Fold Vomeronasal type-1 receptor.
Amino acid sequence: MDLCVTIKGVSFLLQTGVGILGNTVVLLAYAHLMYTEPKLLPVDMILCHLAFANLMLLMTRCVPQTMTVFGMRDLLNDPGCKVVIYAYRIARALSVCITCMLSVFQAVTIAPAGPRVSKLKPALPSLVLPTFAGLWLLNMAICIAAPFFSMAPRNGTVPAFTLNLGFCHVDFRDNLSYVINGVAVSGRDFAFVALMVGSSGYILLLLHRHSRKVRGIRRSQGGGAETRAAKTVITLVVLYVVFFGIDNIIWIYMLTVAKVSPVVADMRVFFSSSYASLSPYFIISSNKKIKAKIVCAAEQDQPSMDNQESRDK
Protein backbone atom coordinates (compact mmCIF):
# COMPACT_ATOMS: atom_id res chain seq x y z
CA MET A 1 0.00 0.00 0.00
CA ASP A 2 1.25 3.49 -0.93
CA LEU A 3 2.64 5.55 1.99
CA CYS A 4 0.27 8.48 1.34
CA VAL A 5 -2.72 6.14 1.26
CA THR A 6 -1.57 4.52 4.51
CA ILE A 7 -1.17 7.90 6.24
CA LYS A 8 -4.60 8.98 5.00
CA GLY A 9 -6.20 5.72 6.10
CA VAL A 10 -4.63 5.80 9.57
CA SER A 11 -5.65 9.46 10.00
CA PHE A 12 -9.28 8.73 9.14
CA LEU A 13 -9.25 5.59 11.29
CA LEU A 14 -7.94 7.48 14.34
CA GLN A 15 -10.34 10.37 13.81
CA THR A 16 -13.30 8.01 13.44
CA GLY A 17 -12.38 5.79 16.39
CA VAL A 18 -11.63 8.69 18.74
CA GLY A 19 -14.80 10.55 17.71
CA ILE A 20 -17.15 7.58 18.02
CA LEU A 21 -15.69 6.68 21.42
CA GLY A 22 -15.97 10.22 22.79
CA ASN A 23 -19.52 10.87 21.57
CA THR A 24 -20.69 7.44 22.75
CA VAL A 25 -19.29 8.11 26.23
CA VAL A 26 -21.11 11.47 26.37
CA LEU A 27 -24.40 9.88 25.25
CA LEU A 28 -24.11 7.02 27.75
CA ALA A 29 -23.30 9.44 30.58
CA TYR A 30 -26.34 11.56 29.76
CA ALA A 31 -28.50 8.44 29.41
CA HIS A 32 -27.50 7.48 32.95
CA LEU A 33 -28.19 11.03 34.14
CA MET A 34 -31.68 10.90 32.62
CA TYR A 35 -32.26 7.63 34.47
CA THR A 36 -31.04 8.93 37.85
CA GLU A 37 -32.21 12.56 37.72
CA PRO A 38 -35.77 13.83 37.28
CA LYS A 39 -34.88 16.41 34.61
CA LEU A 40 -31.87 17.53 32.56
CA LEU A 41 -30.89 21.18 32.35
CA PRO A 42 -31.39 22.83 28.93
CA VAL A 43 -27.62 23.01 28.38
CA ASP A 44 -27.27 19.29 29.14
CA MET A 45 -30.10 18.43 26.73
CA ILE A 46 -28.39 20.48 24.00
CA LEU A 47 -24.97 18.89 24.62
CA CYS A 48 -26.55 15.44 24.52
CA HIS A 49 -28.20 16.21 21.18
CA LEU A 50 -24.94 17.66 19.86
CA ALA A 51 -23.14 14.41 20.73
CA PHE A 52 -25.86 12.45 18.89
CA ALA A 53 -25.56 14.65 15.77
CA ASN A 54 -21.77 14.33 15.81
CA LEU A 55 -21.97 10.55 16.22
CA MET A 56 -24.41 10.39 13.29
CA LEU A 57 -22.00 12.49 11.20
CA LEU A 58 -19.04 10.21 11.95
CA MET A 59 -21.03 7.04 11.24
CA THR A 60 -22.37 8.25 7.89
CA ARG A 61 -19.25 9.99 6.58
CA CYS A 62 -16.03 8.93 8.29
CA VAL A 63 -16.78 5.21 8.63
CA PRO A 64 -17.43 4.63 4.89
CA GLN A 65 -14.61 7.02 4.02
CA THR A 66 -12.15 5.02 6.14
CA MET A 67 -13.33 1.73 4.61
CA THR A 68 -12.90 3.16 1.12
CA VAL A 69 -9.38 4.44 1.85
CA PHE A 70 -8.36 0.92 2.92
CA GLY A 71 -9.49 -0.48 -0.42
CA MET A 72 -13.05 -1.65 0.16
CA ARG A 73 -15.18 -1.12 -2.92
CA ASP A 74 -18.88 -1.29 -3.79
CA LEU A 75 -19.92 -0.52 -0.21
CA LEU A 76 -23.27 0.99 -1.19
CA ASN A 77 -25.72 0.80 -4.06
CA ASP A 78 -27.72 3.79 -5.34
CA PRO A 79 -30.45 3.69 -2.62
CA GLY A 80 -27.78 3.19 0.05
CA CYS A 81 -25.84 6.22 -1.17
CA LYS A 82 -28.98 8.35 -1.18
CA VAL A 83 -29.78 7.42 2.44
CA VAL A 84 -26.21 7.81 3.72
CA ILE A 85 -25.53 11.15 1.98
CA TYR A 86 -28.89 12.56 3.11
CA ALA A 87 -28.25 11.47 6.70
CA TYR A 88 -24.74 12.93 6.57
CA ARG A 89 -25.95 16.28 5.25
CA ILE A 90 -28.57 16.50 8.00
CA ALA A 91 -26.05 15.51 10.70
CA ARG A 92 -23.52 18.07 9.49
CA ALA A 93 -26.18 20.78 9.44
CA LEU A 94 -27.42 19.83 12.91
CA SER A 95 -23.88 20.06 14.27
CA VAL A 96 -23.59 23.75 13.39
CA CYS A 97 -27.21 24.54 14.28
CA ILE A 98 -27.07 22.89 17.72
CA THR A 99 -23.73 24.54 18.53
CA CYS A 100 -25.37 27.85 17.64
CA MET A 101 -28.41 26.94 19.77
CA LEU A 102 -26.11 26.14 22.68
CA SER A 103 -24.41 29.52 22.39
CA VAL A 104 -27.70 31.44 22.19
CA PHE A 105 -29.29 29.58 25.11
CA GLN A 106 -26.21 30.16 27.27
CA ALA A 107 -26.15 33.86 26.36
CA VAL A 108 -29.78 34.19 27.49
CA THR A 109 -29.05 32.21 30.67
CA ILE A 110 -26.29 34.54 31.89
CA ALA A 111 -27.81 37.76 30.53
CA PRO A 112 -28.58 40.46 33.14
CA ALA A 113 -32.15 40.63 34.37
CA GLY A 114 -34.45 42.76 32.25
CA PRO A 115 -38.14 42.89 31.32
CA ARG A 116 -37.78 40.65 28.25
CA VAL A 117 -35.01 38.39 29.56
CA SER A 118 -36.88 37.80 32.83
CA LYS A 119 -39.83 36.42 30.86
CA LEU A 120 -37.65 34.39 28.50
CA LYS A 121 -35.40 32.65 31.05
CA PRO A 122 -38.16 30.59 32.75
CA ALA A 123 -39.40 29.50 29.31
CA LEU A 124 -36.01 28.17 28.13
CA PRO A 125 -36.55 24.53 29.27
CA SER A 126 -39.86 24.35 27.41
CA LEU A 127 -38.29 25.77 24.21
CA VAL A 128 -35.55 23.12 23.88
CA LEU A 129 -37.60 20.29 22.31
CA PRO A 130 -39.56 22.56 19.89
CA THR A 131 -36.25 24.09 18.79
CA PHE A 132 -34.82 20.62 18.15
CA ALA A 133 -37.88 19.73 16.07
CA GLY A 134 -37.65 22.98 14.11
CA LEU A 135 -33.94 22.46 13.34
CA TRP A 136 -34.56 18.89 12.16
CA LEU A 137 -37.41 19.99 9.86
CA LEU A 138 -35.43 22.97 8.53
CA ASN A 139 -32.37 20.92 7.65
CA MET A 140 -34.36 18.00 6.25
CA ALA A 141 -35.96 20.52 3.88
CA ILE A 142 -32.69 22.25 2.92
CA CYS A 143 -30.91 18.92 2.31
CA ILE A 144 -33.78 17.33 0.39
CA ALA A 145 -31.93 17.66 -2.93
CA ALA A 146 -29.02 15.49 -1.74
CA PRO A 147 -30.68 12.10 -2.47
CA PHE A 148 -31.51 13.14 -6.05
CA PHE A 149 -27.85 13.82 -6.88
CA SER A 150 -26.33 10.85 -4.99
CA MET A 151 -25.43 7.53 -6.60
CA ALA A 152 -23.06 4.61 -6.32
CA PRO A 153 -19.69 5.06 -8.11
CA ARG A 154 -19.70 4.20 -11.82
CA ASN A 155 -16.86 2.65 -13.76
CA GLY A 156 -14.93 5.07 -15.93
CA THR A 157 -14.11 8.75 -15.54
CA VAL A 158 -15.88 10.97 -13.05
CA PRO A 159 -18.14 13.50 -14.83
CA ALA A 160 -17.72 17.25 -14.37
CA PHE A 161 -19.48 18.88 -11.41
CA THR A 162 -19.39 15.60 -9.50
CA LEU A 163 -18.12 15.19 -5.94
CA ASN A 164 -16.21 11.92 -5.78
CA LEU A 165 -16.58 10.75 -2.18
CA GLY A 166 -14.99 7.38 -2.91
CA PHE A 167 -17.90 5.28 -1.67
CA CYS A 168 -20.50 7.46 -3.46
CA HIS A 169 -20.73 10.10 -6.16
CA VAL A 170 -22.73 13.32 -5.88
CA ASP A 171 -23.44 14.31 -9.49
CA PHE A 172 -24.86 17.83 -9.86
CA ARG A 173 -25.00 17.41 -13.66
CA ASP A 174 -24.44 21.11 -14.46
CA ASN A 175 -22.69 24.17 -13.07
CA LEU A 176 -25.95 25.90 -12.03
CA SER A 177 -27.06 23.01 -9.75
CA TYR A 178 -23.53 22.77 -8.37
CA VAL A 179 -23.36 26.46 -7.45
CA ILE A 180 -26.96 26.69 -6.13
CA ASN A 181 -26.37 23.75 -3.81
CA GLY A 182 -23.10 25.25 -2.59
CA VAL A 183 -24.64 28.69 -2.01
CA ALA A 184 -27.66 27.23 -0.14
CA VAL A 185 -25.52 25.09 2.18
CA SER A 186 -22.90 27.80 2.75
CA GLY A 187 -25.56 30.47 3.28
CA ARG A 188 -27.25 28.42 6.00
CA ASP A 189 -23.92 27.63 7.67
CA PHE A 190 -22.70 31.23 7.59
CA ALA A 191 -26.01 32.49 9.05
CA PHE A 192 -25.81 30.11 12.02
CA VAL A 193 -22.08 30.72 12.52
CA ALA A 194 -22.68 34.49 12.53
CA LEU A 195 -25.40 34.07 15.18
CA MET A 196 -23.11 31.72 17.12
CA VAL A 197 -20.19 34.16 17.05
CA GLY A 198 -22.44 37.09 18.00
CA SER A 199 -23.95 35.33 21.02
CA SER A 200 -20.50 34.06 22.09
CA GLY A 201 -19.12 37.58 21.81
CA TYR A 202 -21.97 38.76 24.04
CA ILE A 203 -21.10 36.04 26.59
CA LEU A 204 -17.46 37.15 26.59
CA LEU A 205 -18.50 40.77 27.01
CA LEU A 206 -20.71 39.92 30.00
CA LEU A 207 -17.98 37.83 31.64
CA HIS A 208 -15.43 40.60 31.08
CA ARG A 209 -17.62 43.50 32.27
CA HIS A 210 -18.96 41.84 35.39
CA SER A 211 -16.14 39.47 36.30
CA ARG A 212 -15.51 40.85 39.82
CA LYS A 213 -19.13 41.57 40.60
CA VAL A 214 -20.33 38.25 39.22
CA ARG A 215 -17.58 36.35 41.06
CA GLY A 216 -18.77 37.73 44.38
CA ILE A 217 -22.41 36.97 43.66
CA ARG A 218 -21.74 33.47 42.40
CA ARG A 219 -19.69 32.55 45.48
CA SER A 220 -22.71 33.21 47.66
CA GLN A 221 -25.33 31.85 45.28
CA GLY A 222 -23.44 28.91 43.84
CA GLY A 223 -23.63 30.25 40.26
CA GLY A 224 -20.14 29.11 39.26
CA ALA A 225 -21.68 26.35 37.15
CA GLU A 226 -23.06 28.98 34.75
CA THR A 227 -19.59 30.49 34.29
CA ARG A 228 -18.07 27.07 33.63
CA ALA A 229 -20.86 26.32 31.15
CA ALA A 230 -20.26 29.66 29.43
CA LYS A 231 -16.55 28.90 29.07
CA THR A 232 -17.38 25.47 27.63
CA VAL A 233 -19.68 27.09 25.08
CA ILE A 234 -16.98 29.60 24.09
CA THR A 235 -14.45 26.78 23.65
CA LEU A 236 -16.84 24.76 21.48
CA VAL A 237 -17.68 27.81 19.36
CA VAL A 238 -14.00 28.68 18.80
CA LEU A 239 -13.28 25.05 17.90
CA TYR A 240 -16.17 24.97 15.44
CA VAL A 241 -15.31 28.31 13.83
CA VAL A 242 -11.69 27.24 13.22
CA PHE A 243 -12.67 24.02 11.45
CA PHE A 244 -15.60 25.73 9.73
CA GLY A 245 -13.22 28.30 8.28
CA ILE A 246 -10.85 25.66 6.91
CA ASP A 247 -13.78 23.61 5.59
CA ASN A 248 -15.33 26.52 3.73
CA ILE A 249 -12.05 27.75 2.26
CA ILE A 250 -11.72 24.31 0.67
CA TRP A 251 -15.42 24.27 -0.29
CA ILE A 252 -15.18 27.67 -2.03
CA TYR A 253 -12.18 26.38 -3.96
CA MET A 254 -14.17 23.28 -4.94
CA LEU A 255 -16.96 25.48 -6.32
CA THR A 256 -14.50 27.19 -8.67
CA VAL A 257 -13.33 24.01 -10.42
CA ALA A 258 -15.26 21.63 -12.63
CA LYS A 259 -13.38 18.52 -11.48
CA VAL A 260 -12.44 18.14 -7.83
CA SER A 261 -9.34 16.14 -6.90
CA PRO A 262 -10.01 13.24 -4.47
CA VAL A 263 -7.17 14.57 -2.28
CA VAL A 264 -8.92 17.94 -1.90
CA ALA A 265 -12.23 16.20 -1.14
CA ASP A 266 -10.50 14.03 1.49
CA MET A 267 -8.94 17.10 3.14
CA ARG A 268 -12.35 18.74 3.37
CA VAL A 269 -13.89 15.61 4.89
CA PHE A 270 -11.12 15.38 7.49
CA PHE A 271 -11.36 19.02 8.61
CA SER A 272 -15.17 19.14 8.49
CA SER A 273 -15.31 16.02 10.69
CA SER A 274 -12.66 17.15 13.19
CA TYR A 275 -15.15 19.13 15.27
CA ALA A 276 -17.39 16.06 15.64
CA SER A 277 -14.36 14.03 16.69
CA LEU A 278 -12.82 16.47 19.21
CA SER A 279 -15.82 18.28 20.75
CA PRO A 280 -16.93 15.41 23.06
CA TYR A 281 -13.58 15.54 24.87
CA PHE A 282 -14.03 19.25 25.59
CA ILE A 283 -17.52 18.46 26.89
CA ILE A 284 -16.18 15.66 29.12
CA SER A 285 -13.28 17.74 30.47
CA SER A 286 -15.49 20.70 31.42
CA ASN A 287 -18.68 18.96 32.57
CA LYS A 288 -18.57 17.81 36.20
CA LYS A 289 -21.65 15.61 35.83
CA ILE A 290 -20.17 13.57 32.99
CA LYS A 291 -16.79 13.39 34.74
CA ALA A 292 -18.51 12.05 37.87
CA LYS A 293 -20.34 9.37 35.88
CA ILE A 294 -17.13 8.23 34.17
CA VAL A 295 -15.23 8.12 37.47
CA CYS A 296 -18.10 6.23 39.12
CA ALA A 297 -18.19 3.67 36.31
CA ALA A 298 -14.41 3.22 36.51
CA GLU A 299 -14.54 2.71 40.27
CA GLN A 300 -17.31 0.13 39.91
CA ASP A 301 -15.27 -1.81 37.34
CA GLN A 302 -12.12 -1.81 39.49
CA PRO A 303 -13.43 -4.09 42.32
CA SER A 304 -14.71 -6.63 39.78
CA MET A 305 -11.29 -6.69 38.11
CA ASP A 306 -9.58 -7.11 41.49
CA ASN A 307 -11.92 -9.98 42.41
CA GLN A 308 -11.25 -11.68 39.09
CA GLU A 309 -7.48 -11.38 39.63
CA SER A 310 -7.75 -12.83 43.15
CA ARG A 311 -9.78 -15.78 41.86
CA ASP A 312 -7.22 -16.39 39.12
CA LYS A 313 -4.47 -16.54 41.74
User: Anything to note?
Assistant: Residues 218-222 have pLDDT under 50 and may be disordered. The CA atoms of residues 9 and 69 lie 5 Å apart.
